[in-house]
Amino acid sequence: MTTFLSASDMENSNVPDAPLAPETMQQSGLTLGFLNDMILRTLYVRGSMIGRDLALYLCLPFKVIRDPLKFLKDEKCIQIDGGDLVGEVSYKFSLTDLGRKRATEAMQVCAYVGPAPVPLEDYVEQTYRQAVTGILCYPETLQAPFSHLVLRDELFNAIGPAIISGRSVFIYGPPGNGKTAIARSIGEFMNTAGGAIYIPHAFVADGNIITMYDPSLHQIDDPGVDGSDDSDASVRRLLSTGTLDARWVRIRRPVIVVGGELNLDMLDLRYNDEAKFYQAPIHFKANGGVFLIDDFGRQLVSPKELLNRWILPLEDRHDFLTVASGKKFQVPFEQLIIFSTNLDPKALVDDAFLRRIRHKVEINAPTRETYEAIFNSVCRRLGMNTCPEAIDYMYERYYSQGRSPRASDCRDLLEIVQSICRYRRQPIHLTRDLMVESAATFIAEFK
User: Fold this and answer.
1) Mean pLDDT per segment of 10 residues, for the chain of length 447 residues?
2) d(Cα 420, Cα 51) in Å, to the nearest integer?
3) CA distances from 320 to 126, 131, 266, 330, 392 (A)
4) Which residue intervals make up region (Disordered) (predicted)?
5) 65, HSE (Cβ side, Cα atoms, 13 Å)
């Protein structure tokens, strides 16, 4: 069982209890045989290594791998090529001929080399410690992440309860009116007010290694926690008592966005046939944060199939992962999942599915007052003068003639004006004539 460092003992009180480094092999949750194979594979791939470097690479204190190293030496699988008076941590270990044979056999079973995994039970326990439902949300704390958006009060006040629930949210309405921007702002709120969380590099379930940390999706919150800071500090952690477990990475709450590319295969474990280990599915990597399905209803797979896949997770807050042998493992489904769509929800799913999506937030086309506020806000952001005549033209020529105004029109039109001015080497200055030119470029009127 993993022990934890209380969040109250850490600098950031928003950070959940952190896993403490194991003192013994038993506390690591890994068996002697498992660690033996990891050490053999590591030395096979990386060549001879000093004891402390091997511990650093495996993200385990040296005292945890001391017994496996002794066992492998007694079995004549490794040898000591040298060292100094510092002790065993300075010994240089390499494979013998027998060790290379055993390492080759271990590689055929699983070729994973890297930070040692944590047990599935420890991952599950840590995930529930940092649940999205535990984030405090008040109007004043929610304002900053949404300050760049112009929202009606009733819309803004509907978002807070949805965040607090930690349940599913359906954001719908015509395109170009800020659905994705609102969803991303919810993610920014999670990042700032929600604090950091801990995820493992990998975890092990019934001997199957499943990688979790993904640098392309997860943003490290504090480099000093995951062992990526200076080597002297890393060594001190691995030789000391009561330090953080380097197998875990401290990250900002993840915000993972998928669109039309989403399919059912992405929601299952991905098995590497050559390396013989798994990668966690994309929605699983969003645990503790936000999983945004943008353009819901436009995926290759039907909305009904997607929601059928999530009936149990949406209701019970847990999911199942299935390995190649067919064995299933229960895992947390602890995330705020947001469905964003331009389509009519009733045309996508039936009432039974909509009932499972707790919060429905409709975002309609902006009123003229809201449109003007957005337009002027974009002008300020681009360092451009406001121009009521430009807005008048858009309403006279387009919005009063059947085209629905979109909040995104403001940004798109004004950025075209900015580009025109730069191309002509003239000061960026908005006029009605430039808006006429910009709109003619942006709004294609096909004959």
Assistant:
1) 43 64 94 96 96 95 95 95 76 95 95 96 92 81 84 82 82 82 82 85 94 93 52 56 86 88 88 91 91 85 82 84 88 88 78 76 88 93 94 94 91 95 94 94 65
2) 62
3) 17, 18, 14, 5, 55
4) 1-21
5) 30
CB contact set of 207 (below 8 Å; sequence gap of 6+): 34
Structural domains in the chain (count):
3
Sign of the CA dihedral 400, 403, 408, 409?
Answer: negative
What global pTM score does this model have? 0.81
Place of tokens 């019970």: 316
Read off the tokens for 32: 């002697």
Of 89, 115, 141, the last residue of a domain is: 115
Q: Is the domain of 174 the same as that of 111? A: no
Helix count and strand count (H, E) for the chain: 18, 19
Residues 333 and 374 in one domain: no
| Per-residue model confidence as pLDDT tens digits over 222-240 | 655 444 445 555 555 555 5
- Can you give the residue range of the structural domain that contains 421? 368-442
| DSSP for residue 128 | H
Backbone phi, then psi, for 181, in 5-degree steps? -65, -40
Residues 393 and 412 in one domain: yes
